[in-house]
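User: Some background: our group keeps a shared notebook of sequences we're curious about, and every so often someone picks one and asks for a predicted structure to add to the entry. Today it's my turn. The entry only has the sequence so far, pasted here. Could you supply the structure so I can complete it?
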Amino acid sequence: MSRVLIVEDDFDILSIIEERLEMLGFEISSCGSAEGLPEALDRSQPDIILLDIKLPGKDGIEIARDLKADPKTEAIPLIAVSGNPDIGETKQYLDAGFADTCPKPIDYTDLMMKIARALGLQ
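Assistant: Of course. Here's the predicted structure to add to the notebook entry:
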């Protein structure tokens, strides 16, 4: 069972993502801010991180760069999640270290394929 860490500040969206991914068999942990991320990483030791782009304090791109620069987290695949309609223009996200992007509202079939691909399961 793969462990997914979801970093999302909107509790309603977070709850839906958690519920859907748990139904698909993933072990889920979450945090709602950049400040809570170090503790969440230590607690959950995720196989993959779904990272919202618009977070209070630090944005997801800045967080991704930090994670990819840290030897303890550089190998964890990241998927950018955003309500921004430009999320499909992936160059800036790939340059920041994301494996893929996922627009909101989330298509869970598409997200499953992206998670599987990022984890090397397909």
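Suggested note for the entry: The chain has a mean pLDDT of 92. Strands lie at 3-7, 27-31, 48-52, 78-82, 100-103.
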